[in-house]
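Subject: Sanity check before I submit

Could someone independently write out the structure tokens for this chain? I want to compare against mine line by line before I put it in a report. The sequence has 287 residues.
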Amino acid sequence: MTWIQSMQKAIDFMEQHLLEDISMEEIAQVAHTSPFHFQRIFSLLTDTTVAEYMRRRRLTLAAQELRKGERKIIDVAYTYGYETPESFSRAFRKQHGISPREARSYRGKMTAYNRLVIQVNLKGADPMEYEVVEKDAFQIVGVKEQFCCVGEEENVKGIPEMWDRVNGDGTDLKLLKHNNGSVKGLLGVCEDKNEDKPNHIDYWIAVAHEGGEVEGLESLDVPKAKWAVFGVRGAMPHAMQETWKKIYSEWFPSSGYENAGGPELEVYHDGNPNSEDYYSEIWIPVK
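---
Independent answer below. Compare away.
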């Protein structure tokens, strides 16, 4: 089963259990991946979170029920996971722009989110710059924070705030002084914590370092791996986000490679990250 089929199978599972309180672990298990990787790929391909997708779909189906006029509003609210009519009304108005009562009386237009079908772009219209390299294990040193990747995905907000702190208090310059390892540049490293703490990731801002521990910094051993290294050209963060999306919507479906699991790297080289000529990289372990 390809990862595209696995993703679609997981989405179908979500649809079959929209009215149930299913966990992210259950959804990801259907896709044969970790909660973090499922949510990451889902967000890259759909530009929304898993939680938001399910909320939109429930409110779409709720609107269809209200238009039929066969059930009380309070009963529809409970069916679609809302404990009070007030919370249902707020969520309904936010999505549809009208109240449940107005929907029932056929007043006003509503917004429908249809069942999702994953489609990928295999034509490769725009070239991708990449190479596959084998690399021995290496050590990184830096600072890390843990983020939950369920619900509203606090990492989407928390990671940029972490970068702002590191760049603002001089930690970035301190790290670069210890960058004597085989990978040059400041690293953003995503480490899935599914085995010991499901639904969480450790995010590192670090550098490759040889020579053991560094006082005041934490360390992580990045295992030996085969890496797909993608060149990213353009201003941050847009260029990096667009490249991630192309990797999963174009490159993985057509390359024959799979994500091998393990830490993933964003490598930020010297230069002006706001420049359209800025060069950075994405490193993904593959098999």
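---
OP: Matches mine. For the report I'm noting this point. The chain has a mean pLDDT of 89.
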